[in-house]
Threonine/serine exporter-like N-terminal domain-containing protein
Amino acid sequence: MTRLPPAPLRDRITRALRALQKDAPAALAEPDAYDDAEVAAMLRQIGIALVEIQQPTQLVRDRLLHIARRYTTKEVRVVVLPTVLLIQIGAETHEIESSTRGTTQLDLAGRVDAVAELAGAGAITPRDAIAALSDARSMRHRFGPARTILGYVLTTLGFGILINPTWASLPWYVLLGALVGVILTISSSLPALTPVAPAVAAMVVTALSAGFIAEAANDNLLRVISPPLVAILPGMSLTIGAMELASSAVIAGASRLMYGLTQLVLLLFGVTLGLSLIDHRSAQQMSPLMGEWTFYPAIVVIGIGIYLYLSGPPGSLLWLTAAVGVALVGQQVGELFTSPAHAGALGALLTVPFAVIAARIRSSPPAIVMLLAAFWSLVPGALSFESLGEAATDDAIDVRALGSAVAAILSIALGTLVGWSLYTTWTARLRRVNADSADTSN
């Protein structure tokens, strides 16, 4: 029979665990204490901010309805699409907002989520929430252009070690990562160039690699250009679109999938255009691999790169690296039981509960921040840009490669849905148990 620790020791352990957890905010007022127009404006600002930080529309809708119950007893209707948001409170109050801006800036996402958390507890006035969200949506990148480019270089290097870990290719990953980082940094200050920046980066990288880098690195061309380009794949849009379709958000899911596919086609067109400019595709033998030990240093390098490139919140480096590690280790474990194209499901499944539970610790960033970092690292590896590149550049269409890419997207979407379903079921049951305990004590 297992003996429990003495009561004083249990009390100290309980107090220590509670000290690590974040304090739950208290509601400021009862529902209907605020004007409906202010509540609708707050819901509009929260909703469009969540859409801009790449949250699935069905989750945004559920979150807005939960927040609305803290502020009003009237019927609330919410319609969320990838670029449009509609709010109705009662029969008279309406709010409409549109935005084509999307961002994965992690400190901005953390600030938005923090305001949404306060609103979900009724712990902030609508006016204060609107002001806080306005400030959050105008946040600038924490790091300057030089450190942002360095972050992309490290991310490219980390993906290179994961995808094609050869000593001869490492310096070229650094060079090509810096080149793509400069292109993306310039385009971010010129919004008119943002839609074509990935295609231009793919064309320049492919032309440069076909000219001399692949031969100098003694490696296959697509193995050299994949790491600097996988980070700009529209994997997030494709995966979220698949999640929305699976959740019956047909319009949102279909439109987001079409957007992601269009971006992917433009990226592949940049690759084929670069090959046509420099027609030099001499066959190269693959360089010797560095070894399996490189997997774990790659996680650390990717974590640091994401922290710099995506503007991680202060003090979040270790948490972001841990989230990336959970996703990639889960994906690697999944490969023991299934194909690489389907292994992303386990990585996504493990990432959701890790991020949500870790977010309760006082020193951690919000769950959204860790989820964005994990999926941003998980999608490129599972998407297999190299297979897609072969399908686009070969004379015959490689249906198997295209099928593997689609399977990777759907597997990550499925793993995420299962993770969220298990977590929400568990938390709902826990709330019922706590409520029953409270009623019994009363």
Notes: The mean pLDDT is 80. The two ends are 33 Å apart (CA to CA). Residues 319 and 349 are 18 Å apart (CA to CA).
